[in-house]
């Protein structure tokens, strides 16, 4: 189709003819598009009977609409050129190639050409009024109408008839969305950890690595169980990280507590708690005053405490802790040797130690946040997988709770027979220290199975059973307050923990028995019964 | 503008002449309008025509009438098996002048006429038939080493009987190819037969009368040659020709099955020339695809060579041409 055709003035009569051809063409293409769309929609609805598709009706509708719109667009785009118009009009008006010849020789000179043009125009003038009769608008045949009606009826029938596969596909899509949501949350936490200023570089690296790994695993997860399992594994690793952190933090806190209890050293404890940055002159004076009040034995004891803390921190992975350790040991040496520079060294050491404690506090907070996130994710996944009903409890998004949560790990790693049965919960916790908050929520268990552990011997396959299915009271756990004095006691209800680890075979038998009874009672719709049977067959141990 | 008017005036005069010729022939010939038109097409296109039909259908009458209308010299050659080439083209004769001196003098044969009727051409031997080859193609005759031009305009209208095969010689392909059209003269209808009986059984004779002359006919031929042929028509003519060739990809299945050889390049020339002549007779300045379709059977009828299978089954070239035209219409549906 040539777009650069120029219509000579003497052929202006062709405009109406071309518009008619164009309209006819648009209609024809729209019809073709509608046919294609209807057929494709019908195909999709039929396909949905064989393959799980989440929204076949919507897809069919879009395809139909796309067909019509696409057909119209093609029709509009295929506007007839003048050469084509001339050819069609010549044919339809029975002009016996008069118009074609005149068009082709529109720029040629000669007597015959001029006479032929005149003859062509005269005939065109005579026959153009009959264009509508000679070129009627083709709305469509009766056969086409019946076929379209039949196809539409078939589509409607397919839409109205229930399709179990669609429900399955929707569940799968829901699962995918839940996993994606958790994956995105993990990614955000990863960014948050990277941006946290006070967190130590070592902690950042560890968290980044762990969260990145979890992100990838969630990305590859195809079922909620897989996702929950991966989250449980990550949660366990974070627990281990937190335990390690607490172990490093514990000696300093114990020392600080002892100083606060002893009246003479309370000032030192205060200086250490407020530490961070370089020691000020007032710090030096305060330390000097405290040291001058101490007896030689007390000084010796203080030097020993500083040395012990220094030795413990010297083994730390953290560079700042190792640096503080050297300051502490130097201060201990000078204090033991009664050196005149001892007050300055002690002030320096206290400042470094305060700095390390501040970092440890920040590290602990970021780990806690990450744990909360994973726990909430696990809860959401469990809820999505349909365990909510089995749990019989209300699930609350733990990300809405306070900063303080209890990492109540009931890990069974010891014997190696049950490698990683993990039950984490965030429960009601009242912390007396500063910066604490109330975190309330009802936890939910997951049925993630764990494989063989690193221990000796063959581990059996265990799954988490929600507390609602296990009778008995909940455990009590004690955690140290982050900035508070003393310890906080946190009471946990059973419902805050996801469950306990039990052998898979046992849990399977229990569930299967209940389902069988439900099937026998006819509690479940007939179209679901076979699916449920198939499901239990597929997960049979 | 004046030249345009002149041309149109001339064109209208020529059309008027042809109308008069048609009318005059129509007065003498009962029915056979299609045959008359095809003969005129052949003449206007400057070609020769082969008329095929059983005896008594008025073939000779038609030719003679046209010759009278156009005031052309008319020669009739009755072809027989013993007819010699010299009987057609002429011969050298020894003649004596007043002084008694003898010399060779060329005695022109009947071919030296404007309109030559080669009656029952297939009764002569191929040698005699081929005597017409040079005359038909070059419009000259060579005797005793000397080439002599034939009078213009020059037309050969040959006839042959499709039924009598005894003692006949099939025209060679080269000879057939020189005929622009092969016109089948059909049997008249009942009504036409009645008119024929009425007209010929009385004393009243119808004279066609002189309408034009040879020179005017040549001018009309020139006018026909001036008519326009758009590229689409030329393309279709070429496609039609190619479709008669069994080895060509566009050939329809019956052509592939029943045709031994398709039409040669003269076929496409003849197609366009005949289409122009038909357009002229229909008062158009351009040849059209409809013209091509109308003349295609007469143009290809004698140019398509059927194979043994076609003859065994009874397939005719007309059927094949119909198939080709159908196929063409499907392919060029607008």
TrEMBL record, chain A:
Biased composition (Low complexity): 406-421
Superkingdom of the source species: Bacteria
Entry protein name: DUF4175 domain-containing protein
Entry keyword set: Coiled coil, Membrane, Transmembrane, Transmembrane helix
Comp. bias regions, Gly residues: 422-458
Residue stretches of biased makeup (Polar residues): 348-360
Disordered as annotated region, ranges: 311-363, 387-498
Stretches of the chain forming a coiled coil according to its record: 179-262
Membrane-spanning segments: 33-51, 57-77, 145-165
UniProtKB/TrEMBL annotation, chain B:
UniProt keyword Nucleotide-binding, yes or no: yes
Entry keyword ATP-binding: yes
Top-rank taxon: Bacteria
GO MF, any single term: ATP binding
The entry's keywords: ATP-binding, Nucleotide-binding
Family matches, as SMART domains: AAA (SM00382)
Family matches, as Pfam families: AAA_3, AAA_lid_2
Residue ranges occupied by any AAA+ ATPase domain in the UniProt entry: 45-189
Similarity annotation: Belongs to the MoxR family.
Name of the protein described by the UniProt record: MoxR-like ATPase
């Amino acid at each position: 189709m040539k777009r650069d055709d120029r219509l000579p003035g003497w052929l202006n009569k062709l405009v109406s003819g071309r518009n008619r051809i164009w309209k006819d063409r648009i209609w024809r293409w729209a019809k073709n598009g509608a046919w294609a769309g209807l057929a494709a929609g019908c195909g999709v609805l039929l396909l949905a009977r064989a393959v799980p598709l989440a929204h076949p009706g919507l897809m069919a509708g879009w395809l139909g609409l796309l067909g019509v719109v696409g057909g119209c667009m093609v029709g509009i785009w295929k506007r007839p050129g003048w050469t084509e118009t001339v050819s069609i009009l010549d044919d339809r008006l029975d002009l016996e190639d008069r118009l074609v010849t005149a068009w082709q020789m529109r720029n040629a000179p000669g007597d015959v050409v001029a006479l032929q043009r005149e003859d062509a125009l005269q005939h065109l003038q005579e026959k153009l009024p009959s264009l509508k009769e000679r070129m009627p608008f083709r709305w469509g045949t009766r056969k086409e109408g019946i076929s379209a009606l039949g196809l539409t009826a078939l589509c409607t029938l397919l839409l109205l008839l229930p399709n179990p596969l669609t429900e399955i596909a929707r569940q799968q899509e829901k699962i995918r969305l839940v996993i994606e949501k958790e994956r995105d949350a993990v990614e955000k936490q990863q960014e948050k950890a990277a941006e946290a200023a006070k967190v130590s570089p070592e902690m950042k690296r560890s968290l980044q690595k762990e969260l990145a790994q979890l992100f990838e695993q969630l990305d590859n997860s195809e079922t909620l169980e897989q996702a929950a399992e991966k989250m449980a594994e990550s949660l366990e690793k974070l627990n281990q990280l937190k335990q390690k952190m607490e172990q490093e933090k514990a000696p300093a806190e114990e020392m600080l507590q002892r100083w606060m209890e002893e009246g003479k050293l309370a000032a030192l404890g205060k200086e250490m708690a407020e530490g961070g940055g370089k020691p000020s002159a007032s710090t030096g004076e305060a330390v000097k005053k405290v040291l001058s009040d101490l007896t030689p034995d007390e000084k010796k004891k203080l030097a020993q405490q500083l040395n012990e803390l220094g030795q413990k921190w010297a083994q730390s992975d953290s560079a700042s802790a190792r640096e503080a350790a050297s300051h502490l040991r130097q201060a201990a040496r000078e204090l033991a040797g009664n050196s005149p520079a001892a007050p300055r060294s002690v002030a320096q050491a206290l400042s470094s130690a305060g700095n390390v404690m501040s970092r440890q506090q920040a590290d602990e907070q970021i780990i806690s946040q990450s744990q909360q996130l994973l726990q909430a994710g696990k809860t959401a996944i469990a809820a999505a997988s349909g365990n909510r009903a089995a749990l019989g409890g209300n699930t609350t998004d733990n990300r809405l709770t306070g900063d303080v949560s209890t990492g109540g790990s009931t890990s069974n790693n010891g014997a190696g027979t049950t490698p990683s049965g993990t039950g984490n919960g965030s429960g009601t916790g009242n912390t007396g220290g500063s910066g604490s908050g109330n975190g309330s929520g009802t936890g939910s268990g997951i049925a993630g199975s764990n494989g063989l552990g690193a221990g000796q011997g063959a581990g059996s396959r265990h799954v988490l059973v929600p507390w609602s299915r296990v009778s008995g009271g909940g455990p009590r756990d004690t955690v140290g307050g982050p900035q508070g004095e003393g310890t906080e006691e946190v009471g946990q209800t059973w419902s805050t923990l996801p469950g306990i680890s039990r052998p898979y075979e046992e849990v399977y038998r229990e569930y299967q028995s209940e389902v069988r009874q439900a099937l026998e009672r006819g509690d479940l719709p007939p179209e679901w019964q076979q699916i449920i049977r198939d499901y239990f067959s597929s997960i049979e141990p | 503008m004046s030249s345009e008017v002149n041309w149109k005036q001339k064109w209208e005069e020529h059309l008027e002449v042809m109308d008069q010729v048609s009318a005059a022939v129509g007065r003498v010939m009962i029915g056979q309008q299609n045959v008359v038109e095809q003969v005129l097409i052949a003449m206007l296109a400057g070609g020769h025509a082969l008329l095929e039909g059983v005896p008594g259908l008025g073939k000779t009458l038609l030719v003679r009438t046209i010759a009278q209308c156009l005031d052309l010299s008319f020669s009739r050659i009755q072809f027989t098996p013993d007819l010699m080439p010299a009987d057609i083209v002429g011969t050298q004769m020894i003649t004596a002048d007043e002084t008694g001196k003898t010399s060779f003098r060329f005695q022109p044969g009947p071919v030296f006429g404007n309109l030559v009727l080669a009656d029952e051409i297939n009764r002569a031997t191929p040698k005699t038939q081929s005597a017409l080859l040079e005359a038909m193609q070059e419009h000259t005759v060579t005797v005793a080493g000397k080439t002599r031009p034939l009078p213009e305009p020059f037309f050969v209208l040959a006839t042959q009987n499709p039924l009598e095969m005894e003692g006949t010689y099939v025209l060679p392909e080269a000879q057939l190819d020189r005929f622009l059209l092969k016109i089948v003269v059909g049997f008249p209808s009942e009504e036409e037969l009645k008119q024929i009986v009425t007209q010929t059984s009385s004393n009243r004779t119808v004279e066609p009368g002189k309408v034009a002359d040879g020179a005017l006919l040549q001018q009309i031929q020139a006018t026909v040659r001036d008519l326009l042929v758009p590229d689409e028509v030329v393309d279709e003519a070429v496609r039609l020709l190619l479709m008669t060739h069994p080895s060509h990809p566009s050939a329809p299945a019956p052509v592939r099955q029943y045709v031994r050889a398709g039409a040669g390049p003269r076929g496409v020339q003849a197609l366009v020339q005949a289409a122009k002549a038909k357009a002229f007779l229909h008062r158009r300045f351009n040849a059209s695809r409809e013209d091509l379709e109308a003349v295609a059977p007469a143009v290809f009828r004698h140019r398509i060579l059927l194979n043994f299978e076609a003859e065994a089954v009874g397939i005719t070239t007309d059927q094949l041409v119909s198939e080709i035209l159908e196929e063409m219409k499907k392919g060029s549906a607008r």
